[in-house]
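Following the same procedure, backbone shapes were mapped to integers, as reproduced here:
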Amino acid sequence: MDFSLTEEQLAIRTAVRELCADYSDPYWRKLDESHAYPTEFVKALTRGGWLGCLIPEEFGGSGLGFTEASIILEEVNRAGGNAATAHAQMYVMGTLLHHGSPDQKQRYLPKIASGELRLQAFGVTEPNAGSNTLRLETAATRKGDRYVVNGQKVFISRVQHSDVMLLLARTAPYNPQARTAGLSVFIVDLHSAPAAQLTVRPLDLMINHHTTQLYFQDLEIPAENLVGEEGKGFRYILDGMNAERILVASEAIGDGRWFVERASRYASDREVFDGPIGKNQGVQFPIAQAYAQIEAAALMRFKAASMLDAGQTPGAEANMAKLLASQASWAAANAALDTHGGYGFAKEFDVERKFRETRLFMTAPVNNNLVLAFIAEHVLGMPRSY
């Protein structure tokens, strides 16, 4: 089997790397300190066509696959940036692309591809449901030509920097006999939503992801903004979940490579006790171990992405890619912090910033414990644990 990238894929990697060179460590450090949004970087990604890479050419996108998308996001994080603003639009857009009506696709996708519209928010998680998406409580009740939404969402990122949001809400009561039924997906125009009907409250987190809590009070959504059929929303977002895991795995891999490169360089340059600290196996081995883990995770990521590009459903592969990549990145983060010693905690070295950012991947978009439970049940045939 040939594991090498194609000439086109290598060209994509080079082009994104060159773009990211204009947004180096000081840029991201300043954003982190001020909790600001990377507006200029997002505009540059859009101009380069990278944010619309998964949108078909007929709608103004590049028509690339998830393998190419994964390379793009890996390079952003490998350069020291944070690709969260990019991956959200990529996987959220997929629900609209695959299940939206022809009118919805024509209305939104060309504008998303051009950057005229931003779709970077997906309202799913709720305080009382957590990872149990099937027990969402936010309700959308049909009243004539509109749905009226009431409920609450939490840990929803980039709402304040999006024009439209996809919302998963319950259109029928929970039925234990048909657990996946009764959930529907809606397109929410954030600019037309009255503040009294949609309240957005920022959450102060350890990472700069512009995360919020949302409160819906009789928010009216036109019935034409329902994506696909009513009650089938959970099935619609499953494909998006696999895509999200692959893209997040790619970001973790990019982080891991950033940590390994920084740690290796610092260990080779930093001299204590009359020699570089990198000559000591106690410093070498954790970095080398993390590097091996990252390379293995990258292969699983590419396998999952290629399966998705081929029209398959890589549930196990996407979950394993996310699991392995997040673990590898976290191992690399700890190795880099240990290697830098006290300087690892200094903001000017950027290790502490990336350290905080990469820890998220162990918990979100799905906790690794749930990934292990999925593998145990659906791959190994063991009894259901949750």
